[in-house]
């Protein structure tokens, strides 16, 4: 039986509609949600992502403050901008687009963002709150993956979940979210032994390892839910995920496509986090 295809585009559109309704409600209370987007340098992929994020934000009623800086920007100049955005009452969320030019310290920049304006959910304080099971802002891609699982009707509590990849951007917060939702989680990585066996035992597979079609369809437990975070461009120009999609779709119960699965959810959850931050501002104002 073929897997149910989890349509990330459709689900992201619903999330953006929810954000638009929340933004309208906030505006009626005199609070206009605002997102500051900082792009340093001329990386083409980053520029495309920033345009997509800014466009989606404006369409959802979130004000966007774009800051385009040259690749020669110093650490001090970037940190000074972040501090000004921290102090700007019109800015609820701050996003510094990664990757930064090599001479800049990305960890220091993320740590400089006020935790209550951390729209990306990557500040050490917000990661710590997630580890405590008391999340405030959650990294956008893992948060989107949890919404995809919920929309697909996947029962997380009690499930065996395997997360492939241990990055701070996806893998580690994803494992924490699943554990907080009462899954039994195995976090796998490049040093994991018998990787295929771990995947084969999983009811939920989150693939975020960055290697094209590394997970063979034969590894997937029949009926499992597969969320493919990977997006890799092959020599022939095709985009593929970390999972061999056609093979896996023949065994899985539900699966995300690449593209059109997780990707649209990341931007939607960025806007969701920004609205959360604006609601915190409104609550403080009262």
Shape, per Cα inertia axes: globular
Mean pLDDT: 96
Order of helices and strands: EHEHEHEHHHEHEHEEEEHEH
Measured between the Cα atoms of the first and last residue, the distance is 54 Å
What does it look like?
The protein is an alpha/beta fold. Helix content is 42%, strand content 15%. The strands form three sheets. Strands 1-11-8-7-5-6 form a six-stranded parallel β-sheet. The protein has a three-stranded parallel β-sheet with strand order 3-2-4, sandwiched between helices. Strand 5 (160-164), helix 7 (171-180) and strand 6 (184-188) form a beta-alpha-beta unit. Helix 1 runs parallel beside helix 10 (263-285), helix 6 (140-151) crosses helix 7 and helix 6 packs across helix 10. The chain is globular and about 50 Å long.
Briefly say what this structure is.
With 286 residues, this protein is of the alpha/beta class. It has helices at residues 8-28, 44-59, 75-87, 106-112, 124-131, 140-151, 171-180, 195-200, 245-249, 263-285; strands spanning 4-5, 34-40, 63-69, 93-96, 160-164, 184-188, 204-207, 225-228, 232-233, 239-240, 254-255.
Features:
286 residues; alpha/beta; six-stranded parallel beta sheet; three-stranded parallel beta sheet
Write the layout of secondary structure elements.
Blueprint lengths: L3 E2 L2 H21 L5 E7 L3 H16 L3 E7 L5 H13 L5 E4 L9 H7 L11 H8 L8 H12 L8 E5 L6 H10 L3 E5 L6 H6 L3 E4 L17 E4 L3 E2 L5 E2 L4 H5 L4 E2 L7 H23 L1
Helix pairs in contact: 1-10, 2-10, 6-7, 6-10
């Amino acid at each position: 039986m073929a897997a149910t295809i989890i349509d990330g585009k459709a689900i992201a559109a619903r999330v953006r509609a929810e954000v638009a309704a929340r933004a309208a409600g906030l505006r009626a209370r005199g609070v206009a949600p605002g997102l500051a987007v900082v792009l340093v340098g001329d990386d083409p992929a980053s520029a495309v992502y920033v345009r997509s994020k800014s466009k989606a934000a404006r369409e959802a009623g979130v004000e966007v403050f774009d800051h385009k800086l040259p690749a020669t920007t110093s650490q001090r100049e970037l940190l000074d901008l972040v501090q000004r955005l921290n102090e700007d009452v019109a800015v609820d969320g701050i996003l510094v687009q990664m990757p930064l030019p090599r001479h800049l310290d990305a960890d220091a920049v993320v740590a400089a963002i006020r935790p209550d304006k951390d729209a990306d959910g990557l500040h050490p304080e917000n990661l710590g709150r997630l580890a405590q099971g008391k999340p405030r802002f959650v990294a956008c891609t893992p948060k989107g993956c949890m919404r995809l699982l919920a929309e697909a009707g996947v029962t997380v509590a009690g499930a065996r979940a395997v997360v492939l990849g241990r990055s701070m951007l996806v893998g580690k917060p994803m494992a924490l979210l699943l554990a907080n939702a009462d899954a039994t989680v195995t976090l796998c990585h490049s040093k994991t032994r018998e990787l295929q066996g771990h995947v084969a035992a999983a009811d939920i597979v989150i693939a975020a390892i960055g290697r094209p079609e590394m997970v063979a369809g034969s590894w997937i437990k029949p009926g499992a839910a597969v969320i493919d975070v990977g997006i890799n461009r092959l020599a022939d120009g095709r985009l593929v995920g970390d999972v061999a999609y056609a093979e896996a779709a023949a065994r899985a119960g539900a699966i995300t496509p690449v593209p059109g699965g997780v990707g649209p959810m990341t931007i939607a959850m960025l806007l969701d986090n920004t609205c959360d931050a604006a609601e915190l501002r409104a609550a403080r104002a009262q």
